[in-house]
Amino acid sequence: MKLSVIGAGRLGSLIAYSIAITKLADEILLVDVAKELAKGQASDLTHAYIDYGIKISDADYEQISDSDIIIISAGRPRQPGQTRSDLARINSSIISNIGEQIAKHIHKAIVITLTNPTDSMNYLLYRKTNLPAAHLIGSSSLLDSSRFKTVLSQKYQTNGKNIDAIVIGEHGEYQMPYFSGVKINGKKLEFTKAGMDEIKEEVRKSAISVIEKKGLTEFAPAVFTTQLAEAVIKDQKRLLPCSCILNGQYGLSGLSIGVPAIIGRNGIEKIVEVELSSYEREIFEKGASSIKKIISETSQ
To answer: What is the structure's pLDDT at 300?
Structure first.
């Protein structure tokens, strides 16, 4: 199994570390415009895992052409106070260039996108790479779901492993905790509108708090991206929330947005449509409108 990471900075190198320590790939390649950085990260990782029998090296796009999975973390991280539209304008040119290189050299890989804003960047890659929609997976909703579980764990004083909860919709202002599906110890929970509003805001602020304190999120995104890669590599047919290109599902098309999906060797093998309450539908559709607005702005 050959896996490549485009973007060898803090997040990209941590993803490569996570992939190596879980022994999911036989070969890991690092690509970055800062070529010396990629070389240094590859050497450091090689020194760490020489006993694992994993080949780790820096590479260019031609060398990753036969990759089974490509993980894209290149781009600028979101800064405190920066809007996702502002960030999209910066990162869209980076992602466009990467997409063009993928279209030129790579024709079968599963691509996992982390670059923010993830939904619009995943859709931009879909348009640039000519890969099937099922091969483009945005790594965002698993992370948002973990934050949702954390808030619920603290609120209800229970271990996170007892909680079933996901977040779908936009990875951003209009992320949508799926309250209709929340269970603790298998028991469905009921929420008031005020309670949902409060929890939703806590979930949204949890990411902002991390960015304000340390400049970026890295450990959690690396872990959940590894989970997505594992589902593909091991053909787990696992139900995971992630950003998917929609073609009529949820009444939407022309965007990528967080929804539950079956993830296996062929990427997104099935998009699962869950029933939304009127409260959830409103937030979900606002998120879709926000994503489409960013897509339109970055297409000009």
So the answer is: 62
pLDDT digit string, tens, across residues 50-93: 999 999 999 999 999 999 999 999 999 877 777 778 899 999 99
Residue 82's CATH number: 3.40.50.720
Domain extent at residue 25:
2-138
Q: What is the distance between the alpha carbons of residues 125 and 133, in angstroms, rounded to a whole number?
A: 10
Is residue 290 located within the same domain as residue 148? yes
State the Cα torsion 271-1-121-267 to the nearest 10°.
Answer: -10
* Helical ranges in 78-215 per DSSP H: 84-105, 118-129, 141-156, 193-214
Quote the pTM value: 0.97
Q: What are phi and psi of 173, to 5 degrees?
A: -55, -40
The residues annotated with a catalytic role in the active site are 171
Residue 122 reports pLDDT greater than 70: yes
Q: Which of 138, 163, 180 is the last residue of a domain?
A: 138
